[in-house]
Amino acid sequence: MNLPRQYSYNPRSWLIVLLFGAGIAWIAVNGFLYGHRPFGIISLMFSFGPIMLGSLLAVRRVAFQRYLVLDKEALLLPTGFLRLRVTRIPYFSIERVWQTRLPFGAVLSIATKDGKFDVVSAMLPDADSYVDIGKFLQSLVDSTA
What we know:
Elements: E1 5-8, H1 13-34, H2 41-63, E2 67-70, E3 74-79, E4 85-90, E5 94-102, E6 105-112, E7 115-120, H3 127-144
Antiparallel strand pairs: 1-2, 2-3, 3-4, 5-6, 6-7
Helix pairs in contact: 1-2
């Protein structure tokens, strides 16, 4: 792989649309079945919770563009709340790499002496970039073992 390499690391559009759609669908179902807007704490959480989360992710996607960077010496990975803080992970400090499958994607976990970091497939532009990053990091771990 040619380094340095940069990948967009932002929430995908379909995730934002899915959250907005889920909230609006809950409001519509309540309107059709019961003839009124949602009320009560649980019903309001099911309707406005996904809409607010979708709004938060939309603002994150537009206002705070982030990138995952594979540099010659380290991985620069957005971490923290909404992935706004960038953490530098030197390749020599990576001890283990593994993958966890989820219903709508996968998570590539990276263990170092400083802690565990996650690369979420839904934040990358496509599945191929996720696979490329996983193979590259796994080859680094295999070569040092």
